Amino acid sequence: MTDRPDPFAAPFGSLFGDSMTQAELVDGTYSYSGSAQPMENFSLHPATHVLHYGSACFEGLKAHRQSNGTLALFRLDDHVERMRQSIGLLRMPVPDAALIRSLIIDAVEANADFTPDPPGSLYVRPTFIGTAPNIGAAAVPSDMGLLYVICSPVGDYFAGGIRPLTIYVETKVPRTTPQFGMVKSGANYVMALGPTLDAKRDHGADQVLFATADDITETGASNFFLIDDDRIITRQLDESFLHGVTRDSVITIAGDLGYSVEERPLSPSELADWAETGEVFLSGTAAVVAPVGTVIVEDSARTVRDGEPGPNTLRVRDALTTLLTGDADDPHGWRTTVSG
Ligand SMILES: Cc1ncc(COP(=O)(O)O)c(C=O)c1O
Question: Are the beta carbons of 151 and 104 closer than 8 angstroms?
């Protein structure tokens, strides 16, 4: 790894391994050669479906170097299932779980030596695109597709490591449409871009927390939690937002640690009150557990407690990171060891 760029110095997601895997979808059937190939550019017809009608979705999971030197993917099967769900919601043929699993494992093994040591990791990006060259297909799914996996050695998602984030609570503009909240599709992210850039420019916010109709759901790229010494609270699942795998891990870990777990509606005014004494954090594969130091509710900035990462947030974060890196037992069977 000596001559390679440092993932901690490069922006998250801007470095790549040198191999990828891919399966082609033709006539409803996916075919995969069974091994990784060199990472290379695609050649796409200018009329390719995804370029016009947004037939794309992706996943994001990580492989971590373990304390015993092996490499393990975290919650592989949950990410495979969510990818299948996204492809299905795009109304495209859903690949077998075994195929997506193989594409991921083969890509990770081929890129294993790009994995930085913890707290770095190998970020894995399974992607699906509709590839039919047909600009008349606005109202029909692409009848061709490409399912591929690339890998990116990463350091910290938020430049500056663990630092308390500033969150702007957006009550007017939704992140995406309710029926697409559970799809991990690029369209959702481009929709969230405008409000996110505006909140960055106008309020110095790191992320936007979407809360239309006074209903807090998630930020542009993570789920959202309140925690204190006794309980942990997050929005109950429905179709309007992404069912984070880290969200599920956090809930499970917090339950194991003895917190009571509340999955229920949350309003901006409850958040504003909570910030007086409670802790706030974001969860996601990229962000892991990221403490929030300031919330901007109704355009007024409120410091969360003393503005520093709180003890309960750090406790949950530590419990999660020791699971990621193999420093703790794996009671829920979340790690998949791969070779490399
Ligand atoms: C919109 C959104 N919500 C939540 C999450 C967190 O999901 P996960 O914990 O599965 O990474 C992500 C990250 O992928 C996201 O993009």
Answer: no
Q: Token pair for residue 71?
A: 């490499």
Q: Is 49 in the pocket of ligand 1 (CB under 6 A)?
A: no
The pLDDT tens digits for 101-149 are 999 999 999 999 999 999 999 999 999 999 999 999 999 999 999 999 9
Confirm or reject: Cβ of 247 under 6 Å from ligand 1.
Answer: yes
Q: What is the pLDDT of residues 253-279, one digit of tens each?
A: 999 999 999 999 999 999 999 999 999
Residue 37 CA, ligand 1 centroid: distance in Å: 28
Q: Name the residue at shortest CA distance from atom 5 of ligand 1.
A: 222
The atom number, within ligand 1, closest to the CA of 78 reads: 10
Q: Are 76 and 101 in contact (CB under 8 A)?
A: yes
Q: Which residues of 201-227 are buried (b: 16+ CB within 10 A; e: fewer)?
A: eebebbbbbbbeeebbbbbbbbbbbbb
Q: Where are the alpha helices (DSSP H) in the chain?
A: 49-53, 76-89, 97-110, 186-203, 245-256, 268-274, 311-324
Q: Look up residue 234 and give its two tokens.
A: 């997050």
Domains of the chain: 19-154 (3.30.470.10), 165-324 (3.20.10.10)
pTM of the predicted model as reported, rounded to 2 decimal places: 0.97
Phi, psi (degrees; rounded to nearest 5) at 331:
-65, -25
Contact 321, 119 (CB under 8 A): yes
